[in-house]
What we know:
Layout: E1 3-5, H1 7-14, E2 25-27, H2 39-42, E3 61-66, E4 77-82, E5 91-95, E6 98-101, H3 103-110, H4 116-126, H5 149-158, H6 165-172, H7 182-192, E7 206-207, E8 211-212, H8 215-221, E9 225-226, E10 230-232, E11 237-242, H9 249-264, E12 268-273, H10 274-278, H11 280-294, H12 306-317, H13 333-338, H14 352-357
Parallel strand pairs: 1-6, 3-4, 11-12
Antiparallel strand pairs: 2-5, 5-6, 7-10, 8-9, 10-11
Helix pairs in contact: 1-3, 3-5, 4-6, 5-6, 8-9
Amino acid sequence: MPVYVCAESAVQHYRCALSPAESDRSAQIENLDDAVSLKRDVNLLNLTGLGLPSPSVTEPLHVLVSAGTNRGRAKSVLPMAWNGPLPKDAFREVQKDAYVSSPELTFLQMARVLDLVSLVELGMEFCGTYRREAVNGQTIYDQPTLTTPRKLAQFLDAAGQAHGVKAARQALKYVVPDSASPLETIVYLLLCLPRRLGGYAFPTPKLNAAIKLGKWGRRHTLRRSSVPDLYWQDAKIDLECHGKVHELEKTRTEDSMRRKALERMGVEVIELTYDEVKDQKLFSATVRRLANRLGIRLRARSERGFDEHEKALRDALLPTEEIPGRLWKEDIASEEFESWEGEELPPEYDSWEVYMADGDDTEL
Length: 364
């Protein structure tokens, strides 16, 4: 009998570095009539391939079953009922008789238990390239994206009137793809969520979208492009979110050259450290600078209780422990040059280095 892992246990699976999501195979499950729901049956299955601990009261296993199934009384196995037909691509097969809710179904299931802001955070993680609270208790970077906002929307449409769809759709309005770190997600939410949720309602930026550099930038950085953390294309503003890693002198030097290259192209680079995000007054200074460049008139903080909404949002997003920063994706030169393998060098150039140093400045 198969087990269909879902909800919190599915989130734990996708956050486990020992079980990379790209190895899971999509499985078409028509119904859950044969689903395991009792602890004695779960104990007969080997779930080590899912990266999950043995079910216990402190770390229960969440499983999906059809409505009316005998759920037992064990607090270490917590069944969740599903009524009606299952949408397409609702599960991924990890190993024999062991299935995990797809990222899309997991997002829907978590809408039952998470508040809106926490659900948006989860959506950003699933649509981004990092995982939080993995097996070693720390954030893991450069992971494959699990899904996209478009796939999430399509799945919610297919789920019809399933419990949680309304809350999931509400959260999905604020989920954007390609966040590369928890800090980028936090900064985006603080700036761009609506004021009733404690954000400043700024226009949505692009996250980690490459900007082609001009010839000066290519020559002095040996890069063809730069990847801003948050980028407002119309205003040409690059907001960089830094942690302790950027205290390294080597990284500072590389960032300085990249910043000069962008500024020569009319892009203003604004740097924001984690300490500045944590300090409300320092963060407000960056907010005012951004608002001025974006042509936004900030409203009074006292309007409609914004102070209270912002405090609630900051309390929800900013933990007590420090979130580490991350290097730019193109900081590692070997990865950048490897990415060129297989590309055809224009016939008028003898090498990629000559190509980078030549040509007209790229317009944004």
